[in-house]
Amino acid sequence: MKTILKSVLLLFLLAFSLQSCEDQDDVESPAALQVNNFIWEGLNDYYLWQADVPNLADDRAEGINSFLSGYSKPEDLFQDLLNKPISKFPKGQAIDRFSWIVDDYTVLEQELQGTSKNDGVDFRLSYKPGSSTDLVGYVRYIIPNSDASKKEIKRGDLFTAVNGTQLTVSNYQSLLAADSYTLNMVSYNGTTFESNGKTVSLVKTTLDENPVFINKVITSGSHKIGYLMYNGFYAFYDTQLNAAFAELKAQGITDFVLDLRYNGGGSIQTATRLASMITGQFTDKIFAKQKWNAKINAYYEGKDAESLNNRFVDKIDGTPINSLNLSKIHILTTTGTASASELVINGLAPYISVIQIGETTVGKNVGSVTLYDSPTLGKANVNPNHKYAMQPLVLKIVNAADFGEYTDGLKPAIEQSERISNLGVLGETSEPLLNVAISQITGGGARKSQNDKGIALKTFTDVKAINGIRNEMFLEKAPEDLLRALK
Predict the structure, then answer these.
(1) Contact between residue 230 and residue 263 where contact means Cβ atoms under 8 Å apart
(2) 197 Cβ neighbours under 8 A, 6+ residues apart
(3) Ramachandran bin of 157, using left for φ above 0, alpha for ψ from -120 to 50, beta for the remaining angles
């Protein structure tokens, strides 16, 4: 009898132990799985397409650690939990082209405010004519106070190789990711690219880029045309942006050209403020509307539906906005114009006349937010054991007229491509894209520039898509009440 009792007791203890382990798997994430668990929880709560990814379903939470333990690299798990990511599906089939993850949120935070490790060369990579693999780069502009600003390199310069190796679609990332490298420069003879024997050695440093690149007034007849080249929606520089508009306003401009051709995006808040500076007569009206996943939409609609709206404003942290009260604007774009830039174009369209000149934009109508490994997924009480953070897509954005379907890009009313044989000097009236805008404003009609001869290369990518904010449109942070409510 004692033997039987001992056996029963052992079986009971074994069953209890197994049950405890199973419960532990459901409740507590082992130290080795902390990052993976953070990724799953964050995407399960916030990801825009959470309902379309079976492994993010709410009922997967039970026993989730068994699934998560199958991934030794958090980056692999992140990609596998996305909805047809660009890393796994070709362009045209991919749904999520823009979510990303980093292993150091300090670097991410700096990049989202215009600080990055950068040599100062803003460039575009294009395919060589007749090739589907070899690339040629051309310099679009040089960032002031950078290493490149001290070297013999300028807008319009061409390069085809790095450290003597031809740039291709398969090696460009590794070649250009180095902290220092040498560009092998070439000249274009109208048919081919030939080495001119020149090289430029560059070193990346921690660089702050003020996105207000050019701000000036061009007088043409009775027209005083304000021209602003704005290269990134960084909230840290909103005061400088407001000051630039004060200068334009003080000079009594009659027309305005906003140059977003090299602007890959940034802060939704800054986009709203910029639109408010351009106008001023629509304060408190809806500029844009946010559409989150079903769980978050349900929360907002039941608690605070107004939080889904971005409205025109008249102040920046209590400081009055310098608004121009315009009813028409000309905006310059290229295939690198993305996200928050597109938000400004689309958000203004229901209210004023927007004449877009240049190339079709990227087509990013979705936004993200930074998620940290913390009890609420915000920055407070962040896990000290690692520095991973995510920038997943969490919302789609539409304008006041409920239009937001432009994943193929926003098409210009007047098409004008940049041509390497005639890029011109930025801010000068002879520069082709600006010349078109001035002609349109002064009565030249919708004609193209007379300076559009030469080759227009097929775009591959640009430096902003390779590095930094990666064609980003983001909230500064998720609302605290939402963070708490979902946890």
Answers:
(1) yes
(2) none
(3) beta
- Please name which of 378, 369, 293 lies closest in space to residue 100, comparing C-alpha atoms: 369
421 pLDDT band (50/70/90 cuts)?
Answer: confident
Average pLDDT over residues 456-463: 88
Nearest-CA neighbor of 271 among 367, 389, 392, 391? 367
62 secondary structure, DSSP code: T
Quick check: 421 and 454 in contact, CB under 8 A?
yes
Name the residue with tokens 């500029």. Answer: 287
Q: Any residues with CB less than 8 A from the CB of 298 and at least 6 apart, and which? A: none
Strand partners, 226: 217, 256
Decide if 361 contacts 353 (C-beta within 8 A): no
Crossing angle of helices 268-278 and 340-348, in 10° steps, is 40
Packing angle, helices 268-278 and 238-250, rounded to 10:
10
The amino acid that residue 398 corresponds to is V
Specify the residue for token string 């203004």. 348
- The type of residue at 297 is N
CA–CA separation, 52 and 42 (whole Å): 15
Structure tokens belonging to residue 308: 């889904």
- DSSP reduced 3-state for 415: strand
- List pLDDT tens digits, range 432-444: 999 999 999 999 7
Please state, rounded to an integer, the average pLDDT across all residues of the chain.
Answer: 90
Nearest residue to 136 (alpha-carbon basis) of 421, 416, 458: 458
Q: Which of 444, 377, 392 is nearest to 416 (CA)?
A: 444
Distance CA 47, CA 402 (A): 21
Integer Cα distance of 134 and 483 in angstroms? 46
